[in-house]
Amino acid sequence: MRPLLGSLIVLVLTAGACVAQPPEGPTSAPDLTKVYAAGLRGFNKKLTSAVSEQLAVIIISSARKHKIDARLLVAVLVEDGLIARARGTGDQLKLGTKLAADLVDALAEELQERLTRLSAGEKIEPETLRKALAEHAPREKGYSDRVLRLYSNLVGRPKTPPPPPPPG
Q1: pTM for the model
Q2: How many domains does the chain have?
């Protein structure tokens, strides 16, 4: 797993924790964009502020459009190696060889469709999310665990549950 940097801690503290649901709260769009942009630069130090903000807008917009958590999209994009391959070329932003807006939107739509199908319209549980991620990368052993670990860090959840309270 790639190390989380200080800018990502800001990302973790910005929004509430919920599985594969968009965060809600009073954070304004420009502030949220800047927070996500700083977090993205933590994963790719070559990103300029302008490119990272443009990518943040794309991620947040696609997540809202498809009603999934933008932090989940970030985790998948990082694990897929796409944030590391982000680059601005003129007025276009690409992840690898594909336009970022198209790729991120297609990924968000794919994840939303998998989650909807696997949850049968019910609350999305962690195991449902694990299955959806495993379907996204069926040949990569441990892929869903790596994405979920990063997602958990982005959400700010502890890696292990706290011990139960003492009896009494």
Answers
A1: 0.77
A2: 1
